[in-house]
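TICKET: design request
STATUS: open
ATTACHED STRUCTURE:
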C-alpha cells in the first residue's frame, strides 16, 4: 500500500488531487493536511507527498526542507500556480511538480512515475548496502553489486559490477559491516561469494574475470564457508 499525504490550504485542491488518485487504481491510503505545520506535526514517513508551495504560514518549500530533516525517502511532488518555484524544488530533492489547474492526463503521468520510483526505493531499502563516509564525500554501495575489495596502501579499492572506486577505509571494518556473504580470503582481499565462479588452492576467480589471491592457510576454512553459503541458497548465514 502506498501511503500518500496531500498538503494544501485549499480544500478544493485537496479534493481534486484525492479524486485523481482514486482514478489511478492503486492500492493507497490518503491523508490530507491544510497547513505545513500540520503535516510536520505527524513527523512520520509518507511514500508520496503532494505539497502546495504557496501556503499561508510555513510555505511548501520550507515544509519540504523540514520533511527532509527526518525523511530522505519520501517522493515529493510540488503543486504550484506559478513556474518560478520550479528550480527551487530541486534543492529539496523534489520528484516533480504540477501546475494548477491540475490536468488529469498530466497527473496520471506524474503519479504513475512517482509510484514506480517508490517501488524502486522500496527494493533498494530491502537490498543490503555498504555506506562509507570520507572527509570529502559519502558513498553508498549495493552489496550485491560489490564483486571484491582490495586493500591498497590504507585505501580500499572496491570493484563493483559497474565500476571500481578507491576510498579510504579499513578492511577489518568493511569485513565486519559486510557480513557472512563476504569472505576475507587474504589479508588484502575481501570477496563477495555471490560472484565466485571457481577457485583453486591459492586463487579465486570472480565472475568479472578477475582473480584474487587465496591464502593457502585459509583454503580449508574458505571451502567450508563457501559450501555453507551455497547450502544456504546463496544467502548470508547467521
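STATUS: resolved
RESOLUTION: sequence designed for all positions
ATTACHED SEQUENCE:
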Amino acid at each position: 500500500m502506498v501511503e500518500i499525504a496531500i498538503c494544501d490550504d485549499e480544500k478544493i485542491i485537496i479534493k481534486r488531487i484525492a479524486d485523481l488518485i482514486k482514478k489511478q487504481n492503486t492500492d493507497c491510503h490518503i491523508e490530507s493536511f491544510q497547513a505545513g505545520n500540520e503535516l510536520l506535526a505527524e513527523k512520520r514517513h509518507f511514500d508520496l507527498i503532494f505539497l502546495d508551495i504557496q501556503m499561508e504560514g510555513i510555505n511548501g518549500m520550507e515544509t519540504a526542507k523540514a520533511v527532509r530533516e527526518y525523511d530522505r525517502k519520501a517522493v515529493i511532488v510540488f503543486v504550484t500556480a506559478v513556474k518560478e518555484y520550479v528550480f527551487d524544488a530541486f534543492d529539496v530533492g523534489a520528484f516533480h511538480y504540477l501546475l494548477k489547474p491540475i490536468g488529469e492526463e498530466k497527473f496520471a503521468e506524474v503519479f504513475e512515475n512517482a509510484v514506480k520510483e517508490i517501488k524502486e526505493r522500496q527494493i533498494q531499502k530491502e537490498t543490503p548496502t555498504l555506506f562509507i563516509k570520507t572527509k570529502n564525500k559519502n558513498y553508498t554501495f549495493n552489496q550485491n553489486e560489490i564483486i571484491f575489495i582490495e586493500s591498497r596502501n590504507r585505501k580500499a579499492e572496491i570493484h563493483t559490477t559497474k565500476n571500481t572506486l578507491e576510498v579510504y577505509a579499513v578492511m577489518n571494518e568493511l569485513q565486519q559491516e559486510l557480513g557472512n556473504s563476504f569472505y576475507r580470503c587474504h589479508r588484502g582481499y575481501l570477496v563477495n561469494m555471490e560472484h565466485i565462479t571457481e577457485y583453486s588452492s591459492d586463487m579465486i576467480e570472480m565472475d568479472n574475470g578477475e582473480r584474487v589471491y587465496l591464502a593457502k592457510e585459509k583454503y580449508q576454512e574458505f571451502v567450508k564457508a563457501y559450501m555453507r553459503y551455497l547450502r544456504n541458497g546463496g544467502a548470508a548465514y547467521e
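CLOSING REMARK: The CA atoms of residues 197 and 209 lie 9 Å apart. The helical segments are 11-22, 36-42, 60-70, 104-126, 171-178, 219-231.
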